[in-house]
Amino acid sequence: MKVVRQKILIIDDTAANIQILHAVLQDAYSIFFATSGRDGIEMARKELPDLILLDIMMPEMDGYAVCTKLKGDPLTRQIPLIFITTMSNIEDEMKGLALGAIDYITKPFSPPIVNARVKNHLELKRQRDLLEKVTVELDKKNLALNLLAREDALTGLANRRYFNEVLESERKRAIRSRQLLSLILCDVDFFKSYNDHYGHVAGDKCLQVIGQILLQTFKRAGDLPARYGGEEFAIIFPDTPPGNAGLLAEKLRQGMMAQALPHAFSTAAEVVTLSFGVVEAQPNSERNAEWYINEADKALYRAKERGRNQVVVVSFT
Predict the structure, then answer these.
(1) Which among 250, 243, 253, 247 has a CA at the least distance from the CA of 281?
(2) Is 42 considered catalytic here?
(3) Domains in the chain, please, with CATH?
(4) DSSP 3-state assignment of 211?
(5) Any residues with CB less than 8 A from the CB of 247 and at least 6 apart, and which?
(6) pLDDT digits (tens, 9 = 90+) for 107-162
(7) Considering 47, 91, 123, 231, which one is annotated as catalytic?
(8) Which residues touch 29 (CB under 8 Å, ≥6 apart)?
(9) Calpha distance 242→134 (Å, rounded)
(10) Pick from 245, 247, 249: which is nearest to 214 by CA?
């Protein structure tokens, strides 16, 4: 496996200084150099080195100005920077550290000191980069786990657990805003017969089709379509005028019939159909999440009693 060398950028207007530093560091690192502040800034942005060695006393643009530019640029802000200088008083050192430098190396150079300090700072940089990489990977994994904890694997809809959380949250919000909150429950008509005769693979595909229709029908940011369990689905529908939930349930019912999935063992139709129970009400202390589910379930039961493949709405407005 090829080892990638860490990169060092030397910014110094004196060629002799660059040659000395190059001789000291070239065996262990990839060395780049610039002989002016402006060229150094451009090189830093292009190469994104792991460390910058920066002379302070340069014409046109001194090291302090270069440091200020580098630390003010999001692209180069995190690159560690060491000042190379003949100035050794405390005031100069404090000024450089205040601008964002991590260390000072004074001229004339001591090769062992240069090597030791560069090695230490590059090791710290390597560890910091590794920590940032691990942190990013952990964040990605945590995000994936959070999605898994909220999502039904088969349909891509919210799962029952997340549905319960959102229903309670939306109920509380609707109480504060005095807005209507609607809940839709739907069930695949004669799904057991469908599974028994067409097989579980076909049954799963049927549920996935329903999931896609739900996602296409309920697009508002606050709407939450979920797989409630088995062949049952639920939609939380907040902040809506009276009647809207019923209209969307009917649109969903028609959209399912338009898929024309054959169902020869249904008495509701020759294709797969859905029955719906819809409740719309302004929540209060008595109308908790369980109340909404029970009322929507009663409406769904009535839809089934009436022959299935239809929408029943109960309104408490």
Answers:
(1) 243
(2) no
(3) 7-141 (3.40.50.2300), 160-316 (3.30.70.270)
(4) helix
(5) none
(6) 887 888 888 888 888 888 888 888 888 877 877 776 556 656 788 989 999 999 99
(7) 231
(8) 5, 6, 7, 8, 118, 122
(9) 50
(10) 249
